[in-house]
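re: ur question from yesterday

yeah so i grabbed the chain u mentioned. its 331 aa long if i counted rite. heres the sequnce exactly as i have it in my notes:
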Amino acid sequence: MSIRTLFGSLREKVVGKDMKIVFPEGNDERVLRAAARLKFEGLVEPIILGDEEAIRSLLTKLGFTDQKYTIINPSQYADFNKMKEVFVEIRKGKATMEDADRLLKDVNYFGVMLVKMGLADGMVSGAIHSTADTVRPALQIIKTKPGISRTSGVFLMNRENTEQRLIFADCAINIDPNAQELAEIAVNTADTARIFDIDPKIAMLSFSSKGSAKAPQVDKVQEATQLAHKMKPEIILDGELQFDAAFVPETAAIKAPGSKVAGWANVFIFPDLQSGNIGYKIAQRLGMFEAIGPILQGLNMPVNDLSRGSSADDIYKLAIITAAQALDNAK
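ran it thru and got these C-alpha cells back, copy pasting raw so excuse formatting
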C-alpha cells in the first residue's frame, strides 16, 4: 500500500469525526498551513494556541480567512483557574497553585491539559520546541497506559515506488532500554502498526541471530523477546535477529530456519536509541524511504512530537495520525 493509499485510508477513518487536535505553535507558518488544510478538508478541528491577534494576522497574510478557527491564548483563558486546580490534583503534591500558574502559561503544558480534560483529542507539537518540551508535560499529565513504564517513539517508513511500509522503534525517546522496557516497546509497536493496517511481524534486532554471538547486549534482546511473548502471546514476534535475517528470506533460511518472522518482518525493534536513530536515517537517506514521525506510543491519550525541520505537509500527516490514534484509543 502506497503512502497515498495509506493516508487515504487514514483520512477516511477521521473525516467527519470532529476530532479536535491542539497545535501549541500557532505563531509558526508551517503549523497554520497544516491546520488550515486540515480544517478545509474536514479532517480535524484545529485548536491553535498563542496570541490571537498575531495568529489571525498571520492567517490573513497566508490567505486563510475563509474558515473560523478556534484560537486560545493561555494567559487569557476564561477557565484558567479551573485548569490550575485540575493540574494540581493530577500532580498530587508535586505542584503548587503557583507552579500551575507558571507552567500552564507554557503552550505545551496548556495544550496537554486541554487533552487531559477532554477538550481536545490529541496534540501535535515540536515544530519549534524540543522533544523534551513536548514529551515532559505529556508524561506528567496524561501519563502512560497501565502496564507500560514509559513512552517510546516509532517511525513509519514508506517507500512509495516499492509500496514497502515498515515500522522502526524506538528511534526517538529511550536511550538504552532494559529488557522489560524493550518488551513493552515491542508490544506497543504491534498496536501502533495495526492503526496503519499493518499486520505486525516483529523482529527484535541485534548483531546476533539465534545465539550466533554471545554478549550482554544479546542477552538483553533474548530476554526482551521472551518477556514480550509472555506479555502478549498472540503477537508474531521473534528474536534475536540480525537485520538481514529479519528482512531477507534467503538469509533467514540460513540464519533462522523455521522462524515465523525472519525474512518477512515489517516491524523492527532496535536494541537502543543509538542504533534506532542511525537505522531510520540510513533508510531515509540511502534507501529513499519517507520517515513519518516520531509517533509517540504508550500514552493514555495521543501527543505527538514533530521534527523541528518538519514541513507543513509533515505536520498535516502527523495530525491525521494523531486523530487516528485517538479514535483507536476510544475503541
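noticed a couple things. DSSP finds 13 helices and eleven strands in the chain. also The mean pLDDT is 92.
anyway ttyl
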